[in-house]
Amino acid sequence: MAKLYLKSHEWAEIDGNIAAVGISEYAAKELGDVVYVELPELGTEVEAGDELLELESVKAASPVYSPVSGKVVEVNQALEDAPETLSSAADATFICKIELSAPPEGLMSEEEYKASLE
Length: 118
Prior knowledge:
Elements: E1 3-5, E2 10-15, E3 18-23, H1 25-31, E4 34-38, E5 45-46, E6 51-57, E7 61-65, E8 70-75, H2 78-81, H3 85-88, E9 96-100, H4 110-117
Antiparallel strand pairs: 1-2, 2-3, 3-9, 4-6, 5-8, 6-7, 8-9
């Protein structure tokens, strides 16, 4: 399954009508050590581009935007006790899962995203 990216460094990995959402390795490196993840509430409705949650790192607090529209159906509770997982394995760690209410639009492939970083 391929990841799709926002310019703001979030990714969505879509399986049927569920999208796992996380941040890119690039974002994790820019943030430094993540010390707190404000997980979204289950059932929260989001539109693509809306602020989904906030991460706090040793450097700054940073918003995370939703790459898709839908309803939060799962959150990664492990991040409450181990937020640093996002620092060390951002591409492999989902923050939450969203049940899609509309097909994703305006997202970049991994190749397009990597090219946008250059």
